[in-house]
Design a protein that fits this description.
The protein has helices at 4-20, 54-64; strands at residues 24-38, 44-50, 66-84, 91-107. It is of the alpha+beta class.
Amino acid sequence: MPTTEEATRLLQLSRDAYDRGDALLHLQAEVSRLTGQPSSWGSAENDFVSDDHVGYFLSEIERIGWRLEHTGYTFVESGATTSARMLSTGTGVVNHGHVAGYFTFRRGA
């Protein structure tokens, strides 16, 4: 979920690459986030937040003259929180991180 500043930066990179005459453009942007807190019962309290504006953002890049060629996604873990389970053995784990979208564009004809 790119911030306004990050979206502006990526759009400017897209314009600059198009003006240079680059044939390909490859961008990475956060498209969702997984966060959470350990619960008092020792289980995972995960929250998943996604960005509903990714399509709009990609459309703005296409408006410059690029055509979306390929996408890929990966989970980038930034850490985890564990807590002891209250009524059973073991621990509860809450992973933290984000899903990065990788977008490859080809210059439009």
